[in-house]
Amino acid sequence: xxxxxxxxxxxxxxxxxxxxxxxxxxxxxxxxxxxxxxxxxxxxxxxxxxxxxxxxxxxxx
Length: 61
Description:
By secondary structure, the protein is mostly helical. The chain has helices spanning 2-26, 33-60.
């Protein structure tokens, strides 16, 4: 189970990082500000959950 969870966490962290970067770029365009906020919030949350998940898994061993 742990390898699957680690893969899921990795994908979550990567998608969060990508959303964070794209959202940050969208902030520069006033017409896309709202989309930028949503991507920024999703990206930040996904990266936080990825990190917390890894801490939880490392604490189990």
